[in-house]
Every structure is written in structure tokens, then in C-alpha cells.
Amino acid sequence: MDKIAIVILNWNGAEMLRQYLPSVLKYSAGEAAVYVADNSSTDNSIKLLRNEFPECKLIILDRNWGFAEGYNKALQSIDAEYFLLLNSDIEVTPGWLAPLVSFMDEHDEVAACQPKLLSMFRRDSFEYAGACGGYIDRFGYPFCRGRIFDTVEADHGQYDTPVPILWATGAALLIRAADYRAVGGLDPRFFAHNEEIDMCWRLRIRGRKIYCVPQSKVYHVGGGTLPKANPMKTFLNFRNNLTMLYKCLPDEELRYVMRMRLFLDYLAAFEMLILKRNLGDFKAVIRARKAFEEWKIDFATDREVIQASHVGGPIEECKRFSLLWQYYVRRKKFFSQLVGLK
User: Which tens digits make up the pLDDT trace of 88-115?
Assistant: First the structure.
């Protein structure tokens, strides 16, 4: 059994692999086994891996299962103590593994952690997808140490302390195999987007902890599969976020939050249409709301199981304030400015 299995899920990402896989192999040599799980690519990814990176262990999936089920399928065949889910557009740095693994080895209560995620192209700034660890506000909007909505901070070492978080980014996520399997992994119905937040939240409900360990740092391109301005991305984000809230929110909060989200989601949709003149994203939000209502019943049993697994009191990393109010009304743009973090 490997101690650490680094698993890169690939779909038509040959150029990303050619550019960034060498750093993973170089700075993980002797510490981890490196796997690439291919989601039925139609480019030359398989040929590239066999010819240029024969030291990688290759898992070939029979179709494009998406991010969530692609990882679930791949990890079924890997025997390791830790899984490290890593995007193909990540450049790692010397010594990046040791702080993560040492922290996990020393803290049995921690199920998963992430490194500091920095931008590939603005290397002194955090990267949108996970920055220095993630939280959600009371209405389910994710934010990070170092990134709130579209405001991304420069890294001045202001978040260099390891801290408990609600969710670790799926771009570079170290998780105990036992914890991954205990919660059933990533929810395959999500396909992509919000799936790592959902899994980490389910772990927190069980009393397991999630951390950011910023002594490890990596650089991330971001948006490699779906560009940011993409109606499908908007659809998946809204549908999956609502589904995650339905699964994970406690009974005493669910009805109020869902009523508020109905108002806030339609407000966001009309802002996209009227102010941004983005008909595609407007339609995507409306479709996402409809899709959520249609498939919500399929998650009723999941909700019962998740709520019955709750250990301890309220989860501190689920913040009680409204991020929209703080960001747009009170003009709190940086994580350190937010009121109600403690």
C-alpha cells in the first residue's frame, strides 16, 4: 500500500499535463505514487502519458464521468493511506508534500487539508478556486481566506497560519482514504462544481476537521475545463449549491435559507440579464432552480442520513453572517475585514 497516492484527473488536457506534470513528478519523487486517471479523452493525452511520462500510473476510464464520479471511479482501484486529488493545471513547489502529510500524521482528527493556492499568472496573489481555505456564509455562498466573490487578494503572508476551514479546494486536496470512503466520496450526481464543498461539509457534520496548511504552496491556472463565463458552469454552480444546502443544512435553518435563496437567486438572474446583458447565464440560473426542484426528492434519504450523522454543536466554519451584505453594502472586500468571523 502506498502512503500517498497523487491522483490527477484528466480530460483532454494533454497540454496541461505536458506543462505541469513534470513539477509533480520532480517534487514528489520518493514520497508519493503519481496516477493520472483519464476521463475518456479524445486528444493525445494517453499517447503523451505513455511516451513521455511512463513513470506515471495510468487509469483509463470508459467515458467522461465528470470530476466527481471520475475521482470516485479512479480511487476505487488505488490502495493508499492518503489520496491527494490534484488538478492537471497545478504547478507544485519543492517540499510541498511534507507540511501537508506531517500535519495530517500529527492530527488524527483532521480528515483533509489543502495547501496555499496561488495564481499561476499573478504569482504573488491567491488563486480564485481555493486561496487559503474555504468557508460558506449563512445562505450558502462560498468564500476563502484571500478571495471573496471576484476580489482576490495579494499574498503578503497574512494567512500563513494553519486554521480549521469548512472546505478544502478540490484543486489540491489531501484526504485520508478512510474518510473519503466513509462518506461515499464525492457526490457523482453533481458531475462538477461544489462537490468538494459538499464532501468536506459532510465530513465536518461527522465531527471530522478540515484544515488549510499554508506552509505548503502550489500554483494554479484555474478555469482549465470550463471558462468562467460559461452558462454550463453557472448552471452547475447554482444547482449543486442548492442541492448541497438541502443535504447539509440543519432542520432549524433549512426552510428560512431556502426561502431567502429563492429571492436571491432570481435577483442574481435578473442582474445578469439587465445589468450584464448576459442572457446565457440568466437562463442557466432559471434552469438550475428548476433542475434542483425536480431532483430534490432524490436527495431526501441522503439528507436524513447526513443529519443523523451530526456530531457536536454548530459548525463554526459555517458563518452566520450574510456575505452579500458585507461585500456589497458594507464594502468589506477582504477576508480579514469581515465582521463575524469569530
Answer: 999 999 999 999 999 999 999 999 999 9
The count of C-alpha atoms lying within 13 angstroms of the C-alpha of 198, restricted to the half-sphere facing its C-beta, is 28
Half-sphere exposure (Cβ direction) of 91: Cα atoms closer than 13 Å: 13
Residue 141 bridge partners (DSSP):
none
Q: What is the pTM of this model?
A: 0.95
Angle at 324 between CA 318 and CA 326, to 5 degrees: 85
Q: Which amino acid is at 190?
A: F
How open is the CA angle 218-222-228, to the nearest 5 degrees? 160
pLDDT tens for residues 217-256?
Answer: 999 998 544 445 689 999 999 999 999 999 999 999 999 9
Please name the residue that has the C-alpha cell 442520513: 305
The helix/strand/coil state of 339 is: coil
Q: Is 177 in contact with 76 (CB distance < 8 Å)?
A: no
Measured CA angle at 38 (ends 40, 67), to 5 deg = 90
Q: What confidence tens digit (pLDDT) does each residue in 49-58 have? A: 999 999 999 9
DSSP string, 44-106: SHHHHHHHH-TTSEEEE-SS--HHHHHHHHHHTT--EEEEEEE-TTEEE-TT-HHHHHHHHHH
Compute the average pLDDT of residues 63-89.
Answer: 95
Distance from CA of residue 204 to its chain's centroid?
Answer: 15
Nearest to 145 by CA among 171, 174, 116: 116
